[in-house]
Amino acid sequence: MRAVALAFVLLLLAPVLAQPTVRIRAENGEPMLGARVRIVTLDGQAQEFELGAPVLLKDIVLGTIKVEVISWKGVPIGYATDFFRVYEDMTIRVPGVSTAEVEVKGSRGQALSGARVEIYYGGRLVESGTTDAGGVYRTTLPPATYLVVAEYGGRRVEASARLPGKTSLSLDVFINVAGVTLSSSEFAGTILLIILVVLALVIITYEYAAWRRRRLARVITSAGGG
Predict the structure, then answer these.
(1) Both 86 and 63 in a single domain?
(2) 118 CB-near residues (< 8 Å, 6+ apart)
(3) C-beta of residue 41 within 8 angstroms of C-beta of residue 9
(4) In the listed set 47, 73, 94, which residue is the last one of a domain according to the structure?
(5) How many domains does the chain have?
(6) Are 150 and 111 in contact (CB under 8 A)?
(7) How confident is the model at residue 148 (pLDDT cuts 50, 70, 90)?
(8) Which CATH number covers residue 113?
(9) Residues 101-147: pLDDT tens digits?
(10) Which long-range contacts (CB under 8 A, 24 or more apart) does 161-168 make?
């Protein structure tokens, strides 16, 4: 009986003695550093903190806890597990927190590499960065409705989007010439201007040549008459 009782006590103390760690990650596997987390024990005690590393569990009653993920990046989440026993290191993946993709395109549907992307929630900047070679910016976000802003070559567009997931923004960028971004109308205007300049030069050249011929003819006529 003593052996059975001792085994039972050791079983209860095992989670405490082992001091296991709990890692909290997004659904896509990214560590949720900076997330606001609350740990609740069976006796009702709760500890709330900002996640900076795997949670080391010590002196937990019966090794049983409940984990609540309150928010991340300033965006409410409100996810909570049921009470569970922790015997070893484990990882909790928070459902819904996953990859957001923002695609930025030009007026021809071309990918705009290097476009500036900013994502806001409640008027506060949550994430920012630039698009890759394919014109896509990726980050990990809690599920919510965000304001997404894209800027490229002095042009700006914004739209409301439900993320994570994919969203696409289009800017009036037709072509980039020598570092100058042109819209379709600006490009057409530039081509028309070039045509007009060339045409003007042709007319000027023709008129100058005709004037030279007339002048030369007058000189020859004057010389013959003399």
Answers:
(1) yes
(2) 125, 127, 128, 148, 149, 151
(3) no
(4) 94
(5) 3
(6) no
(7) very high
(8) 2.60.40.1120
(9) 999 999 888 999 999 999 999 999 999 999 999 999 999 999 999 99
(10) 161/102, 163/100, 163/119, 164/96, 164/97, 164/98, 164/99, 164/100, 164/140, 165/100, 165/101, 166/100, 166/101, 166/103, 167/100, 167/101, 167/102, 167/103, 168/102, 168/103, 168/104, 168/105
Domain coverage including residue 102: 98-177
Output the six-digit token pair for 91.
Answer: 């990882």
Does residue 121 sit in the same domain as residue 189? no
Q: What is the mean pLDDT of the chain?
A: 82
The two three-digit tokens of residue 133, written as one number:
């070679």
Contact 98, 82 (CB under 8 A): no
Return the number of other C-beta atoms located less than 10 Å from residue 121's C-beta: 19
- Residue 11: what pLDDT? 42
Domain shared by 13 and 80, yes or no: yes
Alpha-carbon span 4 to 10, nearest angstrom: 10
More confident residue, 48 or 62: 48
